[in-house]
Amino acid sequence: MEQAMSNPGNLSRINQFLGKWGTFVRTWNGCALKWTLAIKSPFPFEPKYYFAKKGLPYTLRKIGEGNYSFDFSPKALKKKLMVALTYSSTKEGGADVSVSVFDKFDPEEFVKNAFAFPSENDWVRVNISAQEA
């Protein structure tokens, strides 16, 4: 795989196929990558169920009007899912979330379980972008 991906032509074909859905940068070499995800949702952020389900103890800190930070316990950090999370409530009732994650983190599972959706399929209206940290 590493060899195939080192060919710029292969990388170009993959990115052409992906189109607006993403960009393939490089393969993963076995180390835990850390990413920062920017999540924009028109729905309220309600992560208690997700954190309980994953066994991620945290302390919620208010860092400004409508802005919060989650301080994860050492037990939560050992799970190598996420290392930092902040969020802001929007005037429209949604949320802007920034979460620094490791390779075990499943963004779809997080979105489906950490926001209050009026309908089960509304999770697809949440926008996620990622940057390597």
Give a written overview of the molecule.
By secondary structure, the chain is an alpha+beta fold. It folds into two domains: 1-29, no CATH class; 31-132. The protein has five helices and six strands; from the N terminus they run ααβαββαββαβ. A six-stranded antiparallel β-sheet has the order 2-3-4-5-1-6. The longest helix has 11 residues, at 8-18. The protein is globular, with a radius of gyration of 17 Å. The two termini are 24 Å apart. The mean pLDDT is 84.
Q: Quick recap of the structure?
A:
The protein has about 130 residues and is an alpha+beta fold. Helix content is about 25%, strand content about 30%.
Low-confidence stretches: none
Distance between the termini: 24 Å
Strand order of the largest sheet: 2-3-4-5-1-6
Mean pLDDT: 84
Radius of gyration: 17 Å
Q: Give the total of beta strands.
A: 6
Query: How much helical structure, as a percent, in the residues?
Result: 25-40%
Secondary-structure map:
Blueprint: H1 2-6, H2 8-18, E1 34-41, H3 48-54, E2 58-64, E3 67-72, H4 74-78, E4 82-89, E5 95-102, H5 107-114, E6 127-132
